[in-house]
Amino acid sequence: MKCVIIDDEPLAVDLLKDFVSKVDSLELISTFNNAIDAVSFINQNNVDLIFLDIQMPHFSGIEFLNTIEKKPLIIFTTAYSDYAVEGFNLGAVDYLVKPIPFHRFLKSVVRAQQIFNPTAIQSNPEIPVTTESEQDFMFVRAEYENVKINFSDILFIEGLKDYVKIYTTDNKFTLTLISLIKLENLLSNKGFSRVHRSYIINIKHVKSIQKNKVLISDKRIPISESYKNTFFERINL
């Protein structure tokens, strides 16, 4: 895939260039430190994939997408999680929050490759065959370390504006800076369900369900009207 990097941070560009160089299926054809200069290039050249920052001076990544005529595959690379919903609504392949680890970058490339060329996974041995749906854990940043959390150990997740609390079976919780929508996208096919704008639950740990509440451990979690039908359908109620 022919790719382009658009980011106003030189260090971010250098990191992405290094990441791209490690993946044989990617060919970096240009980099830009602002979105304005990239518009004419994208419209006049064949570009398959763009690594795109969102918050840039004068012209954001969102504005850039609404300007270009050709629409390559997009992977957002940003320091802010606030735009995740808008990014996915614009059809982005993935949404990477800086600092970006290489394994997470590679996972995004796999997604893009599956869209661009569905047979690429079989033909490219460098791309891991373990899919996100097969992975049974995640790492989250908590204070000064990356903490491994097994999905099966999660009771429920509570959203607190920019942070979330991940409650686990050891009667502890991990506080981390991540959006609830990002966790919802990650966990929706792993037995979890959004039941409220502030809560995601692990269905296997549900003890009982009332009309508007679900009991997990000793916590009664509200079920909002906007999520009730989807949740009840999922558990065949």
Description:
30% of the residues lie in helices and 32% in strands. The protein has helices at residues 10-21, 35-44, 61-65, 84-89, 102-116, 120-123, 180-187, 225-234; strands spanning 2-6, 27-32, 49-52, 73-78, 94-97, 137-142, 145-150, 154-160, 163-168, 173-177, 192-196, 199-202, 206-209, 213-216, 219-222. Strands 2-1-3-4-5 form a five-stranded parallel β-sheet. A five-stranded antiparallel β-sheet has the order 10-9-8-12-11. A hairpin with a 2-residue loop joins strand 11 and strand 12 (199-202). The longest helix has 15 residues, at 102-116. The model is unreliable at 120-133 (pLDDT under 50).
Brief summary of the model shown:
It is built from eight helices and 15 strands. The chain is an alpha/beta fold. Keywords: DNA-binding, Phosphoprotein.
Describe the secondary-structure layout.
Blueprint (H helix, E strand, L loop, with lengths): L1 E5 L3 H12 L5 E6 L2 H10 L4 E4 L8 H5 L7 E6 L5 H6 L4 E4 L4 H15 L3 H4 L13 E6 L2 E6 L3 E7 L2 E6 L4 E5 L2 H8 L4 E5 L2 E4 L3 E4 L3 E4 L2 E4 L2 H10 L3
Parallel strand pairs: 1-2, 1-3, 3-4, 4-5
Antiparallel strand pairs: 6-7, 8-9, 8-12, 9-10, 11-12, 13-14, 14-15
